[in-house]
Amino acid sequence: MELLVATHNIHKKEEIQQILEDRFLVKSLTDYNIHEEIVEDGNSFHANALIKAKYCFDKTGIPSLGDDSGLAVEALDGRPGIFSARYAGDHDFAKNIGKVLREMDGVDNRKAFFITVLCYYDENGARYFEGRVYGNLLNENKGFKGFGYDPIFVPEGYEKTFAEMNPEDKNKISHRKKALDLFLEFLNK
Ligand code: ITT
Question: In angstroms, rounded to a whole number, what is the distance separating the alpha carbons of residues 132 and 130?
Answer without folding.
Answer: 7
